[in-house]
Design brief:
This protein is an alpha/beta fold and 287 residues long. It has eight helices and ten strands. The chain has an eight-stranded mixed beta sheet with strand order 2-3-5-4-7-8-9-10, sandwiched between helices. Helix 4 packs across helix 5. The longest helix has 18 residues. The chain is globular. The chain starts with 9 loop residues before the first strand and ends with a helix. Keywords: Hydrolase. One of its GO terms (molecular function) is hydrolase activity. It holds the Pfam family DLH.
Length: 287
């Protein structure tokens, strides 16, 4: 479960004050046509209808004409925030339509943390874990279908190309669920420091869903997660092999959270390496 993730220390981003976040969203929505979100990317704050309500999310689309493959990006347990907007914008700059949802929309609008979040503070940590535990598997599946339907409805979406899904921390498990809930649509799954929540003893363990998918997998684990449970990588490799799913499972020389700027474990060099692996995955699997 989410408390198995090793996410030490502070996570800081001055852009995370709620007032600043709200002003940023308003500015982006008001200047969509000017391209202030990026030279080649249009960014928009959107509300995605789901069977369970209205989900606030960030949408990133390449400028200009043409058709583009769609990507769903699940954030980590700290949710939709500026760091994930940066990553969504960057990925869209590679020619993808990217949606980054607020996975906790049933409980709170994004952002769900403030400018400084301390994982060593039990009160702050328990608040996030409560948000995660309020999410049900059925609800995640419904959300995933709604998010993909929203992406596929975009005028420039290439509905003939298979879609990709990627997740960070808890988002890795959500990416697995997305692929299982949409086996005919998802062609690539990427998990970054997904932790030991990818393999559990529960009947709904994410690794058991791999056989229900038709995707290529990129599973990059953190060294401290692997040190805690070294057998997880082997279970994941076997599950993919048994399902006949092409996969890369690798333990990176970096700690949980290394891909996301703002945290004490952020490792720029290894984050860039993971980013290159992601682009290689999508280039090869999403046709």
């Amino acid at each position: 479960m989410c408390d198995e993730f090793i996410y030490p220390g502070l996570v800081e981003d001055a852009r995370l004050s709620r007032r600043h976040f709200g002003l940023l969203a308003t500015a982006l929505a008001g200047t969509l046509a000017t391209g202030m979100a990026g030279e080649n990317v249009v960014e928009q704050d959107v509300v995605v209808p789901t069977p369970d309500g209205q989900c606030d999310a960030a949408l990133f689309e390449p400028k200009g004409k043409g058709r583009h493959t769609v990507i769903l990006m699940w954030p980590d347990i700290m949710g939709l925030r500026p760091a994930f907007r940066d990553m969504g914008r960057r990925l869209a700059g590679q020619g993808y339509i990217v949606l980054v949802p607020n996975p906790f929309y049933r409980s709170a609008r994004a952002p769900v943390i403030d400018a400084s979040f301390d994982f060593n503070n039990p009160d702050q940590r328990s608040r996030l874990f409560a948000l995660r535990k309020s999410m049900t598997d059925d609800g995640i599946d419904r959300d995933a279908r709604a998010f993909l339907a929203f992406l596929d409805a975009r005028p420039q979406a290439d509905r003939k190309a298979r879609a990709g899904v990627q997740g960070y921390c808890m988002g890795g498990a959500l990416a697995f669920r997305t692929a299982a809930a949409n086996p005919g649509r998802i062609g690539a799954v990427a998990s970054f420091h997904g932790g030991n929540g990818l393999v559990t003893n529960d009947p709904d363990s994410p690794h058991l869903l791999i056989a229900r998918t038709a995707a290529t997998y990129l599973i990059l684990q953190a060294r401290n997660d692997d040190a805690q449970q070294p057998g997880v990588k082997d279970v994941l490799r076997k599950a993919c092999a048994d399902a006949g799913r092409p996969t890369v499972v690798e333990v990176y020389p970096a700690d949980h959270g290394w891909c996301v700027p703002g945290g004490q474990t952020y490792d720029p060099a290894q984050a860039e390496r993971a980013w290159s692996a992601l682009l290689e995955l999508y280039l090869g699997a999403l046709t």
